[in-house]
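Question: Now follow the chain.
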Amino acid sequence: MSKILEGRILTPDGWVAGRLHFDTHIRSVEPVPGLEGPLVIPGFIDLHCHGGGGGDAMEGEESVRTLARTHARHGTTALLATTMTSPVEEIGPALDGASRVVAGRRPNEARVLGVHLEGPFISPDRLGAQPPYAIPADLALMAQFCDRADIRVITWAPEADPDGSLQAFLAARDIRVQLGHSSCDYETAAEAFARGVDGVTHMFNAMTGLHHRAPGIVGAALAHAEHAELIPDLLHVHPGAIRAALRAIPSLYAVTDATAASGMPDGDYRLGRYTVRKCGNGVRLDDGTLAGSCLTMDQAFANLVSIGLAPEEASRRTATLAADYLGLADRGRLTPGAWADIVVLDADLKIRSVHVEGESIDLDHA
């Protein structure tokens, strides 16, 4: 059955006052000059999401479904369930659980597109909030992981793969390789980009920083990266650093790095093997280390607008560029033939309604 939304519709060609006709897919955009109404924008896409609503992706299928429901209520229409650097015997069952969600979306859930494998092939010296189970590159193990789930993105450190064999293996499978959780220097990072590394995991965090005589991974990313993800909760990265990255990295896109604490009150939650504490805008380990976030994509969008981005640019950074990064021409844009993944915002950028593949999400659904 065809549905209609009215308002200011963000199309690939700009804002159109009119009516959006859709069922599971966008059918047409009907201009109606002078028609006023809310902002109608593409649904948000989150390529780095560990949890939400009390659910952690490492806990299996039902927890992945919990996080998918939670983030759908905040406008995320598609996401990657993201793992932790854990013992191999824990990663496998987590991949199995995520795979079952990928195979079958249920009502009120965001579409889980696949998995972001964060580790275990990272540096033990730059774990951030990752548990201490980093291991060197292992092609046989990676092949087993690929057999258990549709892995779309991996966070990887060059020092875990010094001959680049894992990077080449992943590239051959069209898995996006992101540099992150690494202590390598500028030269090593620049070489990795030259070899075809696709992006950067949570830009500025858990990597060597920028100094004018030791540019580090940050410097290499600013100089060479086409794509990078960034957590715009205004806690992980200062607004000034966000703006610098926006000028330097053409396809910088927002992620949440959300934990089970997203959408929940202050308190203690699971993040893989760790217990983390949510207090206000932050989620931390006992020693004060930032441990993911409690961000949702509607807040990420609002934060980008608050630091000066136009709403249409904030939408590009929270939807379109992430879809493009995964090669998805049918998501992240409101154009005929694309999936009807839609967010409607009021003048204060608050969620009015969310549609995932045409389904109206119950914003009160737990």
